[in-house]
Amino acid sequence: MNLNGLLLPMLLAGSAGLAQSVTPPTVALQHQDQPLATIEASQLRIRYRPPASAYPPLARIAKCQGTVVLRLTIGPTGIVEAAEALQGPPLLRFAAAESCRQWTFEPIEIGGMATRVSCDLQLPFRLKDVPVAAREVPVAQAVLDIETTPSPTAVVVDSAALQKTASAWLTQLGLKQVSKADADAASTIHIKVTIQTLRTHEGYCIQNILARASSYADRELKVNKPGEPARICFVNHVLGQVGELGFGDSLQSTVRRSLREFLVPPAPGSPGGTRGMEDQAPGDSAPVFLESSQVRVKKQPPNPTMADFIPEKGSQGSVLLQVTADPAGKPIAAEALAGAPELLMTAIRLALKWEFEPVQVDGAPRTARFQVTIPFLAREDPAAPGRTRRR
Question: pTM of whole model > 0.85?
Fold first, then answer.
């Protein structure tokens, strides 16, 4: 979505006819009880909007473009209190509402007083590699595949509940779920969610969620071709936790998050991490977010070698994780944020073995959340000419 150079007076007021909103409910702020005045979009002046996010992946795959009509509720300080998508392609509504919730405007004064206002505006989405006037067959239905990878060490999951979660997401988008026999290649998308779970001998439970989406005609494609428009989009989340309590709820949350990222990709530079984990004990306060430099390590296992995972000798790599530690400093959950896919599950197992100094706020121990990097060191071949072993 390219919003660079967008002038608000050019955004026309939306139609009064309402379509079903697919945006999640928004909690109103403290000015909810103030009178709500209706204004035109041309009266707004943007104070801040974040950099344009990536085009919604599923909409790009479906070559979906168009204009979303949004109804904004703006508080007297110019903060967007609510953004509701009224009209527009369903595959674009989430991204449009999410984007506008982050905008701020110059306060609107009526009778010399800053006022809470409502305004309808249009937000256009255009694909650079697709003509604006091109008539694409609209996506109206979807084939949904959810698979669990069998394993003797797998955690038993409720497949029916996961299927229900994903089906409800399709219904919310206004897409009809159909069987493979009823799929139409021109108007059907194919969504496949592969779930791998693992219970380790240390008592850790790990989940690896890989979601893939494409047109139904491209359902057998494995990779996108370099230099060509993407025809497949992928979302991958690998999370681990200590013990099995709450694992099923965490798994459902991660599936919902994965599907949502097909419509609203994470913002550039967003911290992400463990949003799907049910890692907060009953009665515990929200985790404290810390910079890596603020965390002191009490115990750390030796760093692994990379040659056990990637055959190329001499190569090195690392995995970035977000760790949640309990008030005693012991990890209770971790999520991989970046790194080679074949290293992620091992990195999480290692991170859950670390121990940290307890984090205190106002003299009381608190659950903390922070990022750590686990390096996978090169294992050099001692027989290679001119190479010496590191000490």
Answer: no
